[in-house]
């Protein structure tokens, strides 16, 4: 398939031929003979674009399961008296039918559902599904590389994630149920197999799955960092990179530095579980029996967990921020406001994320004087975050904004990030945290700021780069229904939770209101939340239908650069082969945000600077 | 794996070598977190004190020696001294093997003085951290095995490509060496 451009037809092709970097691609690479059949093309692929799609579709699979779980436990929370016998075909013995024929959700399984919902959404969907998808898709395309630094390790990264998923999925079918001690897996519930039903085989499989996930995250992260630093095309200096690249790069750095710490924590946990050590256990009584495990400290686990756990929330949100910056600038037809401020705030957030972990532990008995330190750094994160928010707003301000599904989701992201970020300032104060910790207030906070916001960033990315991934567009009408429904629905779910949380309703309880006199007046609010959650769930099903329908029957992409974007991924052919560019790799002459400059709507990165033109990428 | 290796690289650093350094950063974080956990846990009290077995200190000499032999082997490779290169590579492998075996004997010695695996976190930490380190040495010996296969089955030619591959092994080996020196230093000042 020696596809050689014979005549330079467009400006882009002329420039790529004249100025492009010739790495003798075809002399070394006569077609990709390793991608000749279905199995190696779609399954065991080493092409970063295929691996990105594998991450995305696996992520959608897990998102569906995780969301369905939340609907089941929301039914319990909103309608505790309801008859759930109709779920028996799906959940079997986890629906207990009493003498009157009324089916109830098993309380143990309720805890499993909450735990699995958290684990699946945080790690499998918003880490692997978001960063895995878009880092893989965009890093080589936007920096101008043929593929990742090591395509093979990249494929291993996906397959380690896939195996982690298989192990976690199988644990759902254990007779003792999957792990049920919360997604943070605090000991002693996670360290003693006899502590609860889910702490047995369910927890063992949880650890194995998470260990495989760490392997996947590390292999991916090492590749992303190396590719961004070593394989940028000629002219692509760091200050010419689109903000997506900066965001994915810092995300990968955070992952490489924090996931090994989680691994250490889990390693010690494994020894406590299996080999009788007492790293996390001391003087414990289980079921009336005194254990001989002494000398350990459960707080130690919390330190190790949250040293990953806090950077992890930025591993989730930074890619969304990068995607939103890029999508917003393209559709506003304006340069991103304050590019350098955006880069420095990403770096600042990345740095600060490592010195705030104990704000998750204010109430675990850490020294209050040490808490002061963490309060201050936590509140300082508001500064770079606010810089980013103001820059997004000023990017939209006075622009000729194109409202489509992608750009609407990018605006929705900013809305969610502000709402959720403000409650973060409440929670970052250790004094206020005494009242609010472990209530629905914190549930509302993190769902809005890293759940919904990260999802909005992901949706913006999917609608925007769908043509690059599948050569077709997603349906715009369905996309807009999806956006407005989800925006309103998400606020309807999580806004009321702030009130129940401030009143003190604890999270994770099987019965969030009805049986406590103090919380009984929230019964109707809980019903409202559940109904909203069900509506939002079906809107996501609509998105999934739109996604898969559009892969096969969406409107076809007819030009290379449908959005009029400046970045390099839109210079590759519509049917992008392995290696990305059939001939020369385009060289980069300018930064990625020359929109509306010199009377031109947009000036792609491969166009040389004119005379007397200021180079934004050379400070 | 598709053969699309020739890429434009901005920096003069080989990207495989760079990837190794990033991976080493991850390993440093893992061992760093374990040694910090040790410090934090020790500060909380209820901590058994005991003397580290002498074998651990003797072993430090063994692994330092292996770093010297692999460096000399690398130099011989670049200078085209085939016999010296092969011989020193085997010496490195033998020293690595000796290190792992002697670590095992060190654990037995610990066990014999009553500092068993489960008695107190103070001894548990020693087993886990030095065990994890030994696992990384074994990983290095796997890489050494590949280097030995290259040395004995490929015709001796000091090409850039082979030199780079060998360099990866050498750098990783130096890393596990320095890591052990850090760990033994850490254990010594802590106990």
Characteristic key phrases:
heterodimer, A: 619 residues, mainly alpha, Cytochrome C Oxidase, Chain A, two-stranded antiparallel sheet, 18 helices, 60% helix, disordered N terminus, B: 191 residues, Four Helix Bundle (Hemerythrin (Met), subunit A), 5 helices
- Report the portion of residues of chain B in β strands: under 5%
Integer tally of domains of chain A: 1
> CATH superfamily name of chain B?
Cytochrome c oxidase, subunit III, four-helix bundle
Quaternary status of these chains?
Answer: heterodimer
Radius of gyration of chain A: 25 Å
Main sheet makeup of chain A: 2 strands, antiparallel
Category from helices, strands and their pairing of chain B: mainly alpha
Fraction in helix of chain B: over 70%
CATH topology of chain B: Four Helix Bundle (Hemerythrin (Met), subunit A)
How does the overall form of chain B come out from the CA principal axes?
elongated
Distance between the termini of chain B: 50 Å
Q: What is the 3D shape of chain A?
A: globular
Question: Which structural category do the helix and sheet elements of chain A fall into?
Answer: mainly alpha
Contiguous helical run count of chain A? 18
Helix content range of the residues of chain A, please?
Answer: 55-70%
From the 3D coordinates, which CATH architecture of chain B would you assign?
Up-down Bundle
Helical element count of chain B?
A: 5
């Amino acid at each position: 398939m020696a596809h050689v451009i014979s005549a330079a037809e467009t400006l882009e092709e002329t420039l790529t031929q004249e100025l492009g970097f010739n790495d003798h691609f075809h002399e070394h690479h006569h077609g990709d003979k390793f991608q000749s059949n279905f199995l190696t093309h779609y399954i065991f692929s080493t092409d970063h674009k295929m691996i990105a799609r594998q991450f995305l579709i696996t992520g959608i699979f897990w998102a569906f399961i995780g969301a369905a779980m939340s609907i089941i436990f929301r039914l319990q929370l909103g309608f505790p008296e309801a008859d759930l016998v109709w779920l028996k075909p799906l959940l079997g013995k986890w629906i207990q039918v009493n003498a009157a024929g009324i089916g109830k959700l098993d309380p143990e399984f309720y805890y499993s559902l909450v735990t699995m919902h958290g684990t699946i959404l945080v790690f499998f969907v918003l880490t692997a599904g978001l960063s895995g998808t878009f880092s893989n898709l965009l890093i080589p395309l936007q920096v101008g590389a043929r593929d990742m630094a090591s395509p093979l390790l990249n494929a291993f990264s996906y397959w380690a994630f896939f195996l982690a998923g298989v192990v976690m999925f199988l644990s759902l079918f254990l007779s003792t149920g999957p792990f049920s001690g919360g997604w943070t897996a605090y000991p002693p519930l996670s360290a003693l197999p006899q502590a609860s039903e889910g702490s047995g085989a369910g927890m063992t499989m949880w650890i194995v799955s998470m260990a495989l996930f760490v392997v996947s995250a590390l292999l991916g992260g090492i590749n992303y960092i190396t590719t961004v630093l070593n394989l940028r095309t000629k002219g692509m200096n760091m200050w010419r990179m689109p903000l997506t690249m900066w965001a994915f790069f810092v995300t990968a750095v955070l992952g490489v530095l924090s996931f090994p710490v989680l691994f250490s924590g889990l390693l010690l946990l494994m020894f406590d579980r299996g080999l009788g050590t007492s790293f996390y256990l001391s003087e414990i009584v289980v079921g009336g029996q005194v254990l001989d495990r002494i000398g350990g400290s459960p707080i130690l686990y919390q330190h190790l967990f949250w040293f990953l756990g806090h950077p992890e929330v930025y591993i989730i949100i930074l890619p969304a921020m990068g995607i939103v910056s890029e999508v917003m600038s393209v559709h506003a037809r304006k340069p991103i406001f304050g590019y350098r401020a955006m880069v420095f705030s990403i770096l600042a957030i990345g740095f600060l994320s490592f010195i705030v972990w104990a704000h998750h532990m204010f109430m675990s008995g850490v020294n209050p004087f040490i808490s002061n330190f963490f309060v201050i750094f936590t509140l300082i994160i508001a500064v770079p975050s606010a810089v980013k928010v103001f820059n997004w707003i000023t990017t939209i301000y006075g622009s000729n904004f194109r409202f489509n599904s992608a750009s609407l989701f990018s605006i929705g992201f900013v809305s969610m990030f502000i709402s959720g970020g403000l409650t973060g300032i409440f929670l970052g104060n250790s004094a206020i945290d005494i009242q609010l910790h472990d209530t629905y207030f914190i549930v509302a906070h993190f769902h809005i700021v890293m759940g919904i916001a990260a999802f909005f960033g992901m949706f913006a990315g999917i609608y925007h780069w769908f043509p690059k991934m599948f050569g077709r567009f997603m349906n715009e009408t369905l996309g807009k229904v999806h956006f407005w429904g989800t925006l309103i629905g998400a606020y309807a779910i999580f806004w009321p939770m702030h009130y129940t949380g401030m009143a003190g309703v604890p999270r994770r309880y099987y019965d969030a209101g009805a049986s406590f006199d103090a919380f009984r007046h929230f019964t109707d609010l809980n019903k409202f939340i559940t109904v909203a959650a069900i509506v939002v769930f079906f809107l996501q099903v609509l998105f999934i239908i739109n996604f898969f329908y559009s892969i096969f029957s969406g409107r076809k992409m007819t030009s290379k650069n449908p959005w009029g974007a400046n970045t390099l991924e839109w210079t590759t052919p519509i049917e992008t082969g392995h290696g990305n560019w059939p001939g020369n790799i385009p060289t980069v002459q300018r930064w990625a945000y020359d929109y509306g400059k010199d009377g031109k709507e947009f000036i792609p990165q491969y166009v040389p600077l004119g005379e007397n033109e200021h180079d934004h990428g050379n400070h | 794996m598709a053969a699309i290796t020739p890429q434009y690289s901005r920096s003069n650093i080989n990207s495989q070598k760079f990837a190794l350094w990033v991976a080493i950063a991850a390993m440093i974080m893992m061992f760093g977190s374990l040694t910090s956990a040790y410090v934090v846990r020790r500060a909380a009290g209820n901590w058994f004190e005991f003397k580290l077995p002498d074998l651990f200190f003797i072993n430090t000499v063994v692994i330092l020696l292996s770093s010297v032999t692999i460096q000399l082997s690398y130099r011989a490779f670049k200078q085209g001294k085939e016999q010296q290169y092969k011989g020193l590579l085997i010496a490195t492998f033998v020293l690595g093997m000796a290190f792992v075996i002697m670590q095992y004997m060190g654990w037995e010695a610990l066990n014999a003085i009553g500092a068993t695996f489960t008695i107190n976190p103070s001894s548990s930490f020693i087993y886990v951290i030095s065990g994890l380190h030994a696992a990384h040495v074994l990983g290095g010996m796997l890489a050494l095995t590949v280097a030995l296969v290259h040395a004995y089955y490929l015709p001796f030619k000091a090409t850039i490509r082979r030199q780079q591959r060998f360099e990866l092994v050498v750098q990783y080996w130096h890393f596990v060496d320095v890591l052990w020196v850090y760990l033994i230093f850490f254990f010594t000042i802590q106990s």
